[in-house]
Structure formats: structure tokens, C-alpha cells
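[Meeting: bench + compute handoff]

Bench side (C.D.) handed over the final construct sequence. Compute side (W.E.) agreed to return the predicted structure before the next meeting so the bench team could plan truncations. Sequence as handed over:
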Amino acid sequence: MSTENRNRVVRLTKREIEVLSLVAQGHSSKEAADVLFISRRTVDFHLAKIYDKLQVNNRVKAFRAATRIGLIPFESLGYIDPS
């Protein structure tokens, strides 16, 4: 990764964070759309913008990149600690 890419500031909109959080929880585009009261096409548009901003090409990579740089908390998935 180049120095330019490492130092690049990435900002996601509130809606992009909502979309990414829902798909990271395993929701389909349609399910995320229903939760957010928007169309599936709009969810997919937001995902395309997220992928572009994070320079990734799928949902898993987008979630990993977003959590790595602190855009969304890992806890937003609602995992329960088994201990």
C-alpha cells in the first residue's frame, strides 16, 4: 500500500455507515433496504460508493477496511462474548 493510500482520509456518510453495518450483520441488500425504508437499488448504490471510498470490491473487505480504520465499531455487529 502506498504512503498516499495510507494517509488518505476516508469519510462515510451516516447512511453509508448504516448500510455497511446492516450488510456486515449478514443482511441482504433487500433486507437492509427494508430496515432503512429505501430501495434495494439505493442500498446497492451506497455499497458501490463505500467500495470506491475504501478501495475494495466486496462486503467483507469493506467491513474489514472500515473497522480497521475506525469508521465503524466491531461491536456494531451485536456479537455476544461467549466467555
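W.E. noted at the follow-up: Residues 79-83 have pLDDT under 50 and may be disordered. C.D. will use this when planning the next construct.
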